[in-house]
Write a structure and sequence with these properties.
This protein is of the alpha/beta class and 264 residues long. It has helices at 18-29, 41-51, 65-79, 102-129, 151-171, 203-218, 229-240; strands spanning 9-12, 33-38, 55-59, 84-87, 133-138, 176-183, 186-187, 227-228, 251-254. Pfam families: adh_short_C2.
Length: 264
């Protein structure tokens, strides 16, 4: 099928690399107008320019409530509505069980959990006005399996998964579907610092790092192939489209079977 999101307006947080950028790309190809957010204005604007007239970049930090609210209000003001919100932004959080500090906890909560809770909050009114909508939250298999992330990251992602399911129950009567995606080990720049330019000097360095990462991650699934950002983007497309009309309060695990390999 084509044009599965024709006429839809979508916000994708963390849209300046990896899964967010791949999802923006596929949403636009399927007919959506996309607002992508991120902290790097240079990268965000470059991606919006590459994607064309149906892409718009807003500089935003999802750990700040004001930025979340402004992103949604600016989107509605500019494009008249909001159909899809993909709460995708995130990243690693620090601290081990015997050394974690309040700062680690506060940062993790703001980045991974509050950003989702507040994103949902501010999306409700414009989606109600629109007669419904779709909210997708990016969580992780760390929420359901040990040793897929550190303890704080895993606990916060588990909270996102559970909040998603309960939010879908509350918002379903309004025509707002709320689902989440739990990616497995996906080959994206987050593995070397969350940025395609982190700790590297050239595009060639980045390409070499990504190919090495793909080879290593291929060993971590029964399929013996690496997960790519596009695999998660395709899941986000399905959930956002009318094909997913009867899917609500669901956690879509996209991991190549990785979670079935770990029983700890």
């Amino acid at each position: 099928m084509t044009n599965r999101l024709q006429g839809k307006v979508a916000i994708i947080t963390g849209g300046t690399s990896g899964i967010g950028e791949a999802t923006a790309d596929i949403y636009i190809k399927e007919g959506a107008t996309v607002v992508l957010t991120g902290r790097s204005e240079e990268k965000g604007q470059a991606i919006a320019n590459r994607l064309g007239d149906k892409a718009h970049y807003i500089k935003a930090d999802v750990s700040k409530e004001e930025d979340i609210a402004n992103t949604i209000s600016e989107t509605v003001e500019r494009f008249g509505k909001l159909d899809v919100l993909f709460n995708n932004a995130g990243g690693p959080v620090g601290g081990t069980i015997d050394s974690i500090a309040p700062g680690d906890i506060n940062y993790g909560v703001d980045l991974l959990l509050s950003s989702v809770v507040l994103g949902i909050r501010y999306a409700i009114e414009p989606m109600k006005a629109n007669g419904g909508g779709v909210i997708i939250n990016n969580t992780s298999i760390a929420a359901i399996r040990y040793r897929q992330g550190n303890l704080l990251y895993s606990a916060l992602k588990a909270a996102v998964t559970h909040y998603t399911k309960l939010a879908g129950v509350e918002l379903g009567p309004l025509g707002i579907r709320v689902n989440c995606i739990s990616p497995g080990a996906i080959a994206t720049p987050i593995f070397w610092g969350g940025s395609a330019i982190a700790n590297t000097k050239t595009d060639e360095d980045n390409a070499r790092k990504l190919e090495k990462l793909k080879a290593n991650l291929a060993k971590a699934t029964p399929l013996q192939i690496p997960g790519l950002a596009e695999d998660i983007a395709n899941g986000a497309l399905f959930l956002a489209s009318d094909e997913g009309r009867f899917i609500n309060s669901h956690d879509l695990v996209i991991d190549g079977g990785r979670t079935s390999m770990f029983n700890e």
